[in-house]
Amino acid sequence: MTALAGEAPARPARRWPRAAPMVPVLAVLALLAVPARDPSGTGTVADAASAVLVLFCLVRVVRAGVRPLSGAAALVLGLPVLGVCAAAVTSGDAATVLPGAARYLQVFVLVPAAVVLLMRDRRDFRLVAGGLIALALVQGAVGIAQYLTGTGASYRGEDVRAVGTFGPGDVMGMSTVVAYGLVAAVGLALGSSGRARTTALVCAALLVPPLVVSFSRGAWIATFLACGLQLALSGGRRALRAALAAGALGVVLVAGFGIGSQLVEERVASISQVTDAPDRSVTDRYTMWAAAVGMWRERPVTGVGLKNFPAHRDSHASLALSSGSDIAGAGQGFRRQALLSPHNMYLLVLGEQGLLGVVTMAGSWLALLVCALRRVPGARRTRTGADCALVASGLVAWQLVDFAYADIGGPSTVLTAVVLGMVAWWALAAHGRGARYGEGEAPAGLPGARRLTGSGAQDRNAGAGAGAGAGRGGADHG
C-alpha cells in the first residue's frame, strides 16, 4: 500500500538479531569450556569475557539515558559493596586486598548487575538457561570420558575423578557446572510442557552420571536439596511423579550401567562419617573452619582483610591441619596444592570481612532467595514463567547450600556470577517498571507491571534495550 499524500514514509527500523544483547553472556558460558592454563584459575578467558560483558552493559546503559536498576535491585545487589570496601579500607596490605576486592565486586556485584540489565524477558532467561545446560553437557561428556578411560584426576590412587576441562587444580569446577545445568534442566522440565519438557528431562538424565563420578559430596547434597525444593514448588502430584522417575533412573544407573561403583558407594558413605571417622579432607575442612572463626574473633567487625586468610591461617589453625592436598592426573603430574581457603563461603567472608561483611553479603543472597520464592506462586497461577521461577529458585537454593561446602576460586567462579545475575533478574528486575521488558513481557506476579504496544513499545525498547532492570580451591575437599 502506497503512503498517503503528504505523509512522510516511515523509516525502516534497524533489524538486530533477537538474541544480540545476550551474546556477551553466552560468550562467557562458551569460554568456560576452554581449558585454563593457570592452575590457580585466575585471569582466564572467561574472566576477560566477563569484563567485556560489564563494559558492553555500561555502554548500553549510558546510551539509553535511563535509570538502570530499580531501588530494590540496586539495594540488594549493592549490599556486598559495603562489606568489601570496609574490609579493603581497614586492611593494611593494599597489594593483596585490591585484587581481592576486584574479584568480589566482579562476582557478586558487577557481572550479576550486567546480566540483569541485558536480560529483557523470559525468552532471554530461557536462552541463558539453555546455554548453561549446553555447557554442562559438554563438561559432563568430558568428565564421563575421563572416568571411563581412567584419564581423570587422581582419587584414591586411581585417575577416575571427572573434572572436565578444569583440571585437577579445580576438582569442583566440573561438578559445579554440571550441577547448575542439572538444576536448570529440572526447573525447565517441571515448568514447561510438550517437546520442551521432554528435551529438558533428557538433558537432566544425561547430567546425572557426570555429577556422580565427580565425587563431589557438597555438589551432591546441594543438588539433591535444590531439586527437592523445585519438586515441592511445582506441586504435589508432579513432585510424586518426578520422584518416582528419579528413583527409576537411579536404579537403571546403579544396577544397569554400574555407575554406583565401590568408589561412589564409599564416597556416599563418607557423608555420614564426618563426625565419627572423618577422612583427611574433612579433618582439614573442620580445622580451617575453626581458623576462620578465630580470625573473626581477632577482628570481629571488618575481619583480617580480603585474601588474607592464607597469611593468618597457620596462626589460628591447630596441628591437625595437613600441609596441603595431593593432586595429580587429568594431564598433570603430582604436586601439592596449598589449602588457601576454609572451603566454606560464609566462614571465609566472616574471617576476611568480619561481621559487617557476612551480614551484607549473606543478606544479599538471602534477599535473592526470598524474592525469587515469593514470585513462584504468581508464575504458577498465571501459567507464565513457571519454568523461569523454578530454575531461578533452584539455582539460588543450590548456591546457598553449596556455599556451606565451598567458596569462590578457580575458573568456574565467573559462572557463579552469571547464575546470580539470572536469579536477580527473576527476583528483582523492573519492580513497578514492567513496561521496560522487551516486547511487552514482564515476569508474572510483578507489581505494577504493564504492557506497551505499538510504536510506544518499539520506541521504549529501542531506547532502553538494556531491559530488565537488576570454584573452588583445594583438591579433594568436595
Question: What is the topological layout?
Answer:
Blueprint lengths: L22 H9 L13 H20 L6 H20 L3 H25 L3 H28 L3 E3 L2 E4 L9 H21 L2 H19 L4 H18 L1 H21 L5 H10 L8 H19 L10 H8 L8 E5 L2 E6 L7 H30 L1 H7 L3 H17 L10 H16 L25 H11 L14
Helix pairs in contact: 1-2, 1-5, 2-4, 3-4, 3-13, 4-16, 5-6, 5-7, 6-7, 6-8, 6-15, 8-9, 8-15, 11-12, 11-13, 13-15, 13-16, 15-16
Structure description:
With about 475 residues, this protein is mainly alpha-helical. About 65% of the residues lie in helices and about 5% in strands. It has 17 helices and four strands. Strands 1-2 form a two-stranded antiparallel sheet. The protein has a two-stranded antiparallel ribbon with strand order 3-4. Strand 1 and strand 2 form a beta hairpin. Helix 6 packs parallel to helix 8, helix 11 crosses helix 12 and helix 13 runs parallel beside helix 16. The longest helix is centred in the last third of the chain and has 30 residues. The radius of gyration is 23 Å and the shape is globular. The N and C termini lie far apart (about 65 Å). The N terminus and C terminus are likely disordered.
